[in-house]
Amino acid sequence: MPAVPAPGRRSCVSHDAGTVRAFLEDAYGSRVELTVLTPAPEPYRITHTDAGDLAGGDLVLPGRLGFVSGPPRWLVVATVRAGRLTLRDGRDEYPLTAGQTFLDGRFGHSLTTRTEDLELRTVAIPWDAVRTAARRAVPGDDRPVRFTGLLPCDAAHATVWQRTADFAHRTLLAPDLPASPQVLVESARLLAATALAVFPNTVLGAHSQGPPPAECRDTASDTLRRAVAFIEGNAAADIGLADIAAAVPVTPRALQYAFARHADTTPLGYLRRVRLTRVHDELRAAAPDDGLSVSRIAARWGFAHAGRFAATYREAYGRSPSQTFRARE
Fold this sequence. Notes:
This protein has 329 residues and is α+β, with helices and mostly antiparallel strands. The chain contains 11 helices and 8 strands. Strands 1, 2, 3, 4, 5, 6, 7 and 8 form an 8-stranded antiparallel β-sheet that branches. It is globular, with a radius of gyration of 22 Å. Keywords: DNA-binding, Transcription, Transcription regulation. InterPro entries: AraC_XylS_family_regulators, Homeodomain-like_sf, HTH_AraC. It comes from Streptomyces racemochromogenes.
């Protein structure tokens, strides 16, 4: 019987942020911008194990750092072991502390992260394994797999992931206990199937093995209608996912399910769309002598960052907001 090659384990111990950035880019196949917000007296420490069909590692990042990471080559799931971090995905922000799990990368999405004395454990799954797991779970459904949220559906699902990931690190990513190629392939599919069950997505959001959760069953379209009505009536207010879910009322998970199944977006994505439409209407309707400006109108609808707002507006309407504003004259 041929010998099974041991997983390749590499490590990085350095005070240099550029060295850390290069290591992370190589390990996860993602563009990374790294900014040192508060220098740390201790070095950064990273280990990464690549078993071919599965990868993962541990990161110790003292001090405060800022990251902007592009879409990774893998589906990366991470668990905070110590310290804290804040994720920003578009306008959504998630403060996380020890014990919490999140998607550290989604296909086609960039992610902004701020960390403070962070210790992190990751598992990285090839996207091909995720697609294969989706086809197995829902035969005949060839829609692209898209994750619609960065956090697990609930605490119980997070626990399921953490137990599965701990098993992978103890047995599959241990250099002294190499697994056979077939075990690694099947294990990657198991982890991919677990990720699909744990995090909101467009495949198992609409289909599941067995009946869907009670709060999602047969009511998604009604949930969507109530949520849309609340969003359109309160788009100028400072509302978020929890506020929308409470107003419907359903759980946040059921709300995400309804939008993923019937609107192919997220609740907050729909909220941004409504707010952008309101800005567009106000820019077109503003009178030249009413003292309004593009920035004031945008801020009234929750768009505080002028550069990001202008880019989003141009993508939606094919022209800059200032061009729309000037055209009223």
